[in-house]
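Batch job 17 of 40 flagged for manual review because the log was empty.
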Amino acid sequence: MSHTAHIRSHRKPRRSATTSIAVRAGVAGGVLSMAAAGASASAFAAESTTQTLELPTLSADLGSQVAETADAMQQAAANYQLQAERDSAAAAAAKQAKADLAEAKKKAEAKKKAEEARRAAAEEAASRSTERATLSASASASTSTSTSTSTATGSAAAVIAFVKAQIGDAYVSGGTGPSSWDCSGLVQTAFKQVGIDLPRVSQDQSTAGTQVSLSNLQPGDILYWGSAGSAYHVAVYVGDGMFVGAQNPSTGVAEKPLSYDPPTGAVRVL
């Protein structure tokens, strides 16, 4: 036996045929794997290309959505415009209603004033009726005396001519001519024709001259109704038992007999 028989050899062992086959199989497997990977990549690329072909369909949907949005915006704008027109119409209606209300109030106020004037005239007529009933006896006596007075001359004739010329004119409270009068306005203007300035109202005119008896009247005397200093009506005695005065809205300026509305007293300023 050799002295090296128990020492292991340091040479590399030979590869067996099985080992070579295994290596070759591994290489082949790698190549096949790479080929499969390439095929997969090609397939993926092909699939991606197929997906991009669907983009036009997506773009059409987006266009439809944009169109719908535009329609919605247009409808909203139309709604806003309609609301604005309704608001404008409502404002105009409110303005017209306010104007109508103001006109109605104005007419109501005018009607109220007319009613007050009518009531005042009725109260004045009632007051005169009361005075007439109280003084009827004395007035009858004065009438018979007055009818015998002489014809007016001078200033009295001018005053009488003026008041007779206004017969038929309207009665208007506060009127001083030339075509409408109240009682004291007519008397004041008549005496102004002969240079005599009388007070404006009946109360003051009833004390403007010398008090005279109703049984001693002369043409041109001022007749008054009510008490001296607080008379509510005046007229001018024109002779023959007649007087001319602005009576009331119904009769206007008229010539009446003393018996129509017997006066309370008289004053003489001529």
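Reviewer: the log was empty due to a logging misconfiguration, but the result itself is present. The beta strands are 170-171, 180-181, 210-212, 222-225, 233-239, 242-246, 253-257, 265-268. Unflagging and moving on to job 18.
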